[in-house]
Design a protein that fits this description.
six-stranded mixed beta sheet; 29 helices; 42% helix; 15% strand
């Protein structure tokens, strides 16, 4: 889940270390972290190591333990490990809630100082605390002797140190559960900082280092004319801000920012009033709705609203929610059956081929085998949200194929085109209402206006009122969904999607790619630079035409331009100051915006003494004036006066351009249909040269290895 403490505390370990899990949310680390495995019963965390330690050369392991489990019986495991004198570090996550079962408080008093005192009394002498708010603990807060408090940014250093401690050591990671934090903010029980993260997608290289650092699903892919980049889903972001630690200058912290709503949602809404009622389904037999979605987006709430609305109309309704670990962003399914009277409902689950409606709030879950099994071809209707929630695979694989078209095709084959409506509800709802949480009510309104909900809209709106959460917002989302059925073009216009589509239009043909890249390279350097690019690509095109192919030309057109337009200091400055960045920023946010930039200028930054990598620093709005000056100095690029051009990174980038030209030229004399695909593969290798600084350096090495591995 976005902002979950486990994203950083549990999955990040020193190189060569491993961890074991127990019972709790942190068990999910075994699915996404290659270095965490196994689990035990409560009170047995890490005890498997007691049996293993005497029979292995491995010196030390980590064991994850939640504060709720610690309070329940986890101390028994620590006591056993201490008695056995094994080398183990317990990472106790103090997230201030029994998060896995709904966010309750521990059944009793438990504070971080109390845990340290208890551990000290058991004999543990190495106890450290990592927290995102070290300032909240004043001197004399009641900690055990020798306990030190650190910022969570020091986690790697702390863990390296703890590995060397003989015997049992403990790291208490203090950060509030993200799901609980969101609940408290909604209820006004916790401050909701007016602070947002914005990614300048044109500066972004799509390397994925921000995902590696944060493990966060709110860092999402966005397809652009220059490839896949990153964007922040402002609706799901829990303001953890660890993504900023990615080594990239594209991240901007914006204070005082609020997601901008479309003018259509804040102005007159007369067109949403007195909408014509559809013909609702009859209830000669129970009506079965199979509702799918992702945890944390309000799927269960939709079922609850329909249940209350049915009750208000004195109808029968059964709801079976299957959520599992869904509050952490997993799949949610609700089986909803509505009947004229309760006694008409004989079974509560929607069985095989018995769904009247698939209400797919997420296409991945809606196209899953369980959902497909409920479809009766020629009968079942479906409303499917085209938006695809990213999965954990993307965090570790920046080029992960989401197989969107395959999912779409699977649904169409089972349902039939005449029984299926695909709408990008998330995008529409977010653009119009400013928050993706409106998506599911939008979809419900759409389904209602299509005549697929056997309850009158008055009852549904009354249920929204009784729920007493964001009442007017949710009503508006429902109305906009209804209106989309009656005039979809008007809703698209209200969301200004047509303009956005044109701005993000991705060139497909060779001519379109060449023209796009020429324009980009002219802005990057000058017209002569762009003509150099076109001349090279046209030579490859001429060779391609002899073979009746075009794939090699297209690959060279994309990746030669990528190497030519390496992102040095001048280019980053230009991409911040040419007007596009500010337009996109103010298109997404409103308010009295104050920007802070997170940069690591190679001539000004210092290196981390442990990693040898440059450290990012925060710069205020004044850096924008520096950007403007740098952008005007782009003519110095590659000349003797280019002070940045003497760094190893810049020298390598320039050498890659000539190297790529030589590589492609060397392919042409031997090019044939027999080895053509290998030539295309070689030409696309620069796709993997992404990032900045040490991230790009690592990718340079991978590129060199791949170049040698692929032969022609």
């Amino acid at each position: 889940m976005s902002g979950c403490p486990h994203n950083t505390s549990t999955t990040h370990l020193p190189e060569g270390s491993r961890a074991v899990a127990g019972i709790g949310c942190h068990y999910m680390a075994t699915w996404i972290a290659h270095n965490t495995a196994t689990f035990t019963q409560m009170g047995g965390e890490g005890v498997t190591w007691v049996g293993q330690a005497p029979f292995t050369d491995e010196r030390h392991i980590f064991a994850n333990l939640g504060d709720g489990t610690y309070f329940h019986s986890g101390l028994l495991a620590i006591r056993a490990a201490f008695s056995a004198k094994v080398n183990i570090t317990y990472k106790i996550l103090y997230n201030d809630a029994v998060a896995m079962t709904g966010g309750q408080h521990v059944d009793g008093e438990l504070t971080v100082p109390m845990i340290t005192q208890q551990l000290y009394a058991e004999g543990v002498r190495k106890i450290v605390i990592a927290t995102d708010e070290p300032h909240k603990y004043p001197l004399g807060a009641g900690f055990a002797p020798g306990v030190k408090i650190h910022h969570r940014d020091e986690l790697d250093v702390l863990q390296d140190d703890l590995k060397k401690w003989p015997g049992v050591s403990v790291l208490i990671y203090d950060q509030t559960c993200a799901a609980e934090k969101r609940r408290r903010r909604k209820r006004g029980l916790m401050e909701d900082p007016q602070k947002r993260i914005f990614i300048n997608e044109r500066v972004c290289e799509g390397c994925g280092d921000c995902s590696v650092k944060s493990n966060c699903v709110s860092v999402q892919p966005i397809e652009t004319p220059l490839g896949r980049k990153r964007t922040i889903d402002q609706s799901s972001c829990n303001k953890d801000f660890s993504c900023v630690n990615g080594f990239c200058p594209s991240f901007v912290t914006v204070e005082g920012a609020r997601p901008r709503k479309a003018k259509a949602s804040t102005g007159k809404t007369a067109h949403l009033e007195n909408l014509p009622d559809p013909i609702l389904p009859t209830l000669n037999a129970p009506f079965s709705i199979y509702l799918t979605g992702v945890g944390g987006t309000g799927v269960v709430t939709i079922g609850a609203l329909l249940g209350m609305a049915a009750h208000l109309e004195k109808k029968g309704c059964s709801i079976v929610d299957m959520a599992g670990l869904a509050q952490k962003g997993g799949a949610v399914v609700s089986h909803i059956r509505i009947a004229q009277k309760p006694s008409d409902i004989q079974a509560t689950r929607v069985s095989r081929e018995r769904a009247d409606l698939i209400l797919g709030c997420d296409i991945v879950v809606a196209a899953g085998p369980d959902a497909l099994a409920t479809i009766k071809t020629g009968h079942t209707q479906a409303i499917i949200n085209e938006n695809q929630t990213i999965t954990g695979h993307f965090i570790h694989s920046p080029d992960y194929d989401f197989k969107h078209e395959k999912l779409r095709q699977n649904l169409l084959e089972k349902l039939g085109a005449e029984h299926t409506d695909f709408i990008d509800a998330t995008h529409l709802a977010t653009r119009i209402l400013g928050d993706a949480i409106a998506t599911n009510l939008f979809i419900l309104g759409y389904a209602y206006q299509k005549g697929l909900i056997p309850i009158h809209h008055e009852a549904i709106l009354k249920a929204v009122e009784l729920n007493a959460v964001a009442v007017e917002f949710n009503k508006l989302a429902f109305h906009w969904g209804r209106y989309a059925v009656l005039d979809f073009k008007a809703v698209e216009d209200a969301a200004n999607l047509e303009f956005e589509k044109k701005a993000k239009e991705i060139p497909q043909s060779l001519e379109a790619v060449i023209n796009h890249r020429k324009q980009h390279l002219t802005g990057y350097q000058n017209k002569a630079y762009a003509e150099r690019y076109e001349l090279f690509v046209r030579k490859i095109e001429a060779q391609d035409q002899k073979l009746g192919r075009q794939e090699l030309s297209l690959a060279v057109a994309k990746y030669y331009a990528k190497l030519l337009a390496y992102k040095d200091e001048y280019e980053v400055a230009r991409l911040y100051t040419d007007g596009t960045y500010l337009k996109e920023l103010y298109d997404q946010f409103e308010g009295n915006l104050k920007m802070k930039f997170h940069l690591a200028p190679p001539l000004l930054s210092y290196k981390d003494p442990k990693t040898g990598q440059l450290k990012k620093s925060t710069y205020g709005p004044w850096i924008f004036s520096v950007f403007k000056i740098l952008a005007k100095l782009k003519g110095l690029r590659g000349t003797a006066l280019d002070i940045f051009g003497y760094t190893h990174e810049r020298k390598t980038e320039r050498s890659l351009i000539g190297g790529y030209e030589n590589l492609v030229y060397s392919l042409l004399p031997h090019l044939s249909l027999h080895n053509y695909d290998v030539a295309v593969e070689l030409a696309t290798l620069p796709e993997h040269i992404r990032g900045f600084g040490h991230v790009k350096e690592c990718n340079f090495t991978s590129y060199a290895v791949c170049s040698k591995r692929v032969g022609i």
